[in-house]
């Protein structure tokens, strides 16, 4: 790395790369977020002198992070040249792993999803199987779509994700699933692609995704509720994702409804179970026919039946909606969100009856001022919200001013000194594990 | 997936839907999309106008897709007022959608060519107040509800798995299989290839996969020859749709090479080749007439303001040389051409010998 810096300095006139990281990071983020794009605006917003701004911009053009773009609006005199962030300088690999499916995508450095793929997968098949599938598809997608080399990986995983002790430190994931216990999933994936990795719980990533590209675009206070086999919620308050002390915020499925947990009475499994029972005892003629034809039922069939007007299914989904709404109402009073987005397989298939039930309970139990402009909508992003959110997580982590300062002079976060050290440690650990134990020769 | 284990003869050719939608949605089967009598009466009273934008109108697939759309719209007194042939040209599609924004049409059924490059034009069409129903795929970033009503597609993932299973029987242990892939960012062909690779990786990890890409169907012949040259012992090829598959068949035949191929779509040439027990050993067929009909029903439902599922899918149909005539009837809603029937009859005595050579 020292050599790289020396090489960089030797190009053209001398640049004060080492001493200037803070100003480089500041200017890059101003351009990247669109806060300031012309030299004049950059000087004003950064409070840096003209010569310094010119020097830093030249450095970042040389590093391939910025380019000169279109002419901007003239304010008397020549029209200024606008600086553009090179969102194609690298790519981000993103994946959202769920109980029964995986989603993968590639995003640009602005977090814009460029390509995505979804397929069925079983989490309990174990981490090796999922890891193999992820690497195979990422390799294929990178080659197929000819995207630039990755700068980071973002993952959305079921269950809470602890906050790491230090930057670039991986945390254990999915420890509640027996086959995943003790498997360094994040380390393996990070090493395989040689890039830093960042993980969030699925619901937190989906919340970020909805805020970035879904119903919550442009809003700073939203709640996202995921209704799948389990029930959880994510919160963005004043523009920031709320992760909680341990990173476990949002587990509303553990609220009590009578003697039961919300997730156990209003989750996809409970709905399917009730549907099956109604199909068997004839309370739902539609489900009885579907069961006879397919031999099994899923929550999707129950949602479809409700849309076709099957009374049992309409009532079942409204009841689940009301139970979820009752758990959301206190949160709504506490947070005063502008929007509640409801996603997950139950919401996707549950249709209007479910949404009506949620609205009924939330509006009934919220303070009038809190519910005055509150919108409650169904997510339109499906599992894509997890991918968009995971990309946004990586963007925020890589371009956080403190992190950015440490790598900007090197041109890519992959060269971040702390990450390189971490990569070295991971390689050693893996090599030690792979090596046969010393002193125990085979007989 | 489990219905397509190696060695299983696809006697019952009804496939289940194994792929997920563009946003990971679970499919609603197309045969569950119905209009009630009341809906139908309303639709007839409103006399909707619909335009269709296709990548091409010359392929067998497109002709049948259009037939399904036109017949179904007609049943509900909706007029198919324009069919645009984009000739695989992104610019042409963008221009056509831009023009349709100002035409007196209520809805547009479109198959997006490429990916992100046509997203803005499709989105703008929806913003102009027209209902948009997509065939096969939604460009990345477009969302159901806001940007389009629904995607109606064959289960391309399932088709890729089927083709892998059918080709697998022709690949010896530790052999090599080739993939003729489409070098354009196109969701349907991506899904088929990913599924083919997944099936092979799972059930035939002993098989080495090699791959060549073609940018246009014309390039499939040279690509197939290049693959054969580079890979001694190549035992079979999967081509991502029928037109390049037949280009490959011709190029290989001209060079005196006989290789088993599987592909997607039961085009006339592919059907004839199968009937004559040529190189094509199996096809995962889409049902374009049925897909067109489903797209028309979804379009009408959306126009009536009814909730429509974001992802409506149709299972494909596996076709082998032994049932090509019957499959032809199902796929094309027509009797099989005489050449195909004659081909099957004259090839039948040689079947055992041919299968052995494969």
List the helices and strands and how they pair.
The complex is a heterodimer of chains A (443) and B (358).
Chain A: H1 2-10, H2 21-32, H3 39-46, H4 50-62, E1 66-71, E2 81-85, E3 91-97, E4 101-107, E5 113-120, H5 127-145, E6 150-157, H6 185-193, E7 197-201, H7 202-213, E8 222-227, E9 231-237, E10 240-241, E11 256-257, E12 260-261, H8 262-266, H9 268-280, H10 285-294, H11 299-307, H12 311-335, E13 339-343, H13 345-365, H14 368-371, E14 375-378, H15 384-398, H16 401-407, H17 417-434
Parallel strand pairs in A: 3-6, 6-7, 8-13, 13-14
Antiparallel strand pairs in A: 1-2, 3-4, 4-5, 8-9, 9-10, 11-12
Helix pairs in contact in A: 2-4, 2-16, 5-6, 7-15, 9-10, 9-12, 11-12, 11-13, 12-13
Chain B: E1 28-29, H1 37-46, E2 49-54, H2 60-75, E3 79-85, H3 90-100, E4 107-110, H4 119-127, E5 131-135, E6 150-154, H5 156-168, E7 176-182, H6 187-203, E8 208-214, H7 220-230, E9 234-239, H8 242-254, E10 261-264, H9 268-275, E11 280-285, H10 288-303, E12 311-314, E13 317-319, H11 324-332, H12 338-347, H13 351-357
Parallel strand pairs in B: 1-12, 2-3, 2-4, 4-5, 5-6, 6-12, 7-8, 7-9, 9-10, 10-11
Antiparallel strand pairs in B: 11-13
Helix pairs in contact in B: 2-10, 3-4, 5-6, 7-8, 9-12
Structure characterization notes:
The complex is a heterodimer of chains A (443) and B (358). Chain A is an alpha/beta fold and 443 residues long. Chain A has three domains: 2-85, Orthogonal Bundle (Arc Repressor Mutant, subunit A), CATH 1.10.10; 91-206 and 386-434, ATPase, nucleotide binding domain (Nucleotidyltransferase, domain 5, 2-Layer Sandwich); 216-380, 2-Layer Sandwich (Nucleotidyltransferase, domain 5), CATH 3.30.420.40. Chain A is 47% helix and 17% strand. Chain A has 17 helices and 14 strands. In chain A, the strands form four sheets. Chain A has a five-stranded mixed beta sheet, sandwiched between helices. In chain A, strands 10-9-8-13-14 form a five-stranded mixed beta sheet. In chain A, strands 1-2 form a two-stranded antiparallel ribbon. The two termini of chain A are 46 Å apart. The model of chain A is unreliable at 1-15 and 438-443 (pLDDT under 50). By secondary structure, chain B is an alpha/beta fold. Chain B has two domains: 17-154 and 288-309, 3-Layer(aba) Sandwich (Rossmann fold); 156-286 and 318-357, 3-Layer(aba) Sandwich (Rossmann fold), CATH 3.40.50. Chain B has 13 helices and 13 strands. Chain B has helices at 37-46, 60-75, 90-100, 119-127, 156-168, 187-203, 220-230, 242-254, 268-275, 288-303, 324-332, 338-347, 351-357, and strands at 28-29, 49-54, 79-85, 107-110, 131-135, 150-154, 176-182, 208-214, 234-239, 261-264, 280-285, 311-314, 317-319. In chain B, the strands form two sheets. Chain B has a seven-stranded parallel beta sheet, sandwiched between helices. In chain B, helix 5 crosses helix 6. The longest helix of chain B has 17 residues, at 187-203. Chain A binds chain B through residues 96, 101, 103, 105, 112-120, 133, 136-137, 140, 144-145, 213-214, 298, 300, 304, 307, 345, 348-349, 351-352, 380-384, and chain B through 1, 18-26, 28, 32, 115-116, 140-141, 143-146, 157, 181, 185, 190-191, 194, 197-198, 201, 307, 309-310.
